[in-house]
């Protein structure tokens, strides 16, 4: 519909007879005038701003209109709050996230459109623009799209500008040297997910390799347990029930009550362990990094083969990871929480 444009048509809205509809759009305001033989008092008008003009047989509604073939006209109140303000930008971000995953690193237009539920022509136009700016690359022979070279430049610049990663990296390297295992920094992102933001791999022929930018649910592995263990107990349980616990292996803890009890143990020890719970043959140990207010800002961890990180030697790795976490917390001027989850509010109340 054009700005300032007008649309007129006829429709049968009720058994009372034919109805006419007049729509006028001016400066992003949609005026909908519905003409009927009688006032439409039978419709539920409570959520809407109906105005009846004196001496005439029509009512005016400011909002949006939607036609239904079976029931005539249905008035909608406001646009959905969660609807994206800039859908094209959101779609472009989804495409880049999609291509960043290893199994989708080389994908065709049809695959991207289908997997992300994007209209094919819309998807093509967005990919064309991303290709022009080198955010994606397109291979004419294979018809595959992949991440573009300019993202390397942006990633390098971002790493330069993000001071906290620069501050944490020496401690990450120290942990890899001390343990001989791959060390990682994990940070929360939107949608209750975690993501690798930095890594240091040991100089040894057999080691675990991870991809920066790879993300996973907050309820998975030792990383997520560290974040959840230091939240308020009710908040943690709410997140767990909302996100769910996906069973990656036969060792994944999927029972919520058992998972919550495990979080209490993690908070008491100050670190979390994972024995092949996320990936078969891989174990890990994580410790929280706190901010100024005692909240978990990031998690540092070391991950390795199950044969190398068995329960007998895990305490050694745990102490090294906790030491690295303490050093980074100090560098961030952070502090550890002074009370178990769920008791902070009670202590503040007692001291006030």
Question: What are the SSEs and their pairings?
Answer:
Elements: E1 6-14, E2 17-26, E3 29-35, E4 50-52, E5 58-62, E6 64-68, E7 72-76, H1 87-100, H2 109-116, H3 120-132, E8 136-139, E9 144-147, H4 150-161, H5 163-179, E10 182-189, E11 193-200, E12 215-217, H6 221-229, H7 233-243, H8 256-269, E13 272-275, E14 282-290, E15 296-305, H9 314-331, H10 344-351
Antiparallel strand pairs: 1-2, 2-3, 3-5, 4-5, 6-7, 8-9, 10-11, 10-15, 11-12, 13-14, 14-15
Domain IclR-ED: 150-334
GO molecular function, one term: DNA binding
Keywords: DNA-binding, Transcription, Transcription regulation
Note the beta-strand portion.
25-35%
Cα shape: globular
Number of helices: 10
Helical content band: 25-40%
Which CATH architecture of the largest domain?
Answer: 2-Layer Sandwich
What is the succession of H and E elements? EEEEEEEHHHEEHHEEEHHHEEEHH
- Structural class of the secondary structure composition? alpha+beta
Q: Within the CATH hierarchy, at the fold level, what is the topology of the largest domain?
A: Beta-Lactamase
Instruction: Give the termini separation.
Output: 59 Å
If you compute it from the alpha carbons, what radius of gyration comes out, rounded to the nearest whole angstrom? Answer: 28 Å
Give, in spatial order, the strands making up the sheet with the most strands: 12-11-10-15-14-13
Say how many strands there are. 15
Largest sheet: 6 strands, antiparallel
Account of the 3D structure:
This is IclR family transcriptional regulator. GO terms for molecular function: DNA binding; DNA-binding transcription factor activity. Pfam families: HTH_IclR, IclR_C. The protein has 352 residues and is of the alpha+beta class. It has helices at 87-100, 109-116, 120-132, 150-161, 163-179, 221-229, 233-243, 256-269, 314-331, 344-351, and strands at residues 6-14, 17-26, 29-35, 50-52, 58-62, 64-68, 72-76, 136-139, 144-147, 182-189, 193-200, 215-217, 272-275, 282-290, 296-305. It has 3 domains: 6-76, no CATH class; 87-152, Arc Repressor Mutant, subunit A (Orthogonal Bundle), CATH 1.10.10; 162-331, 2-Layer Sandwich (Beta-Lactamase), CATH 3.30.450.40. It is built from 10 helices and 15 strands. A 6-stranded antiparallel beta sheet has the order 12-11-10-15-14-13, sandwiched between helices. It is globular. The model is unreliable at 1-22, 26-82 and 339-352 (pLDDT under 50).
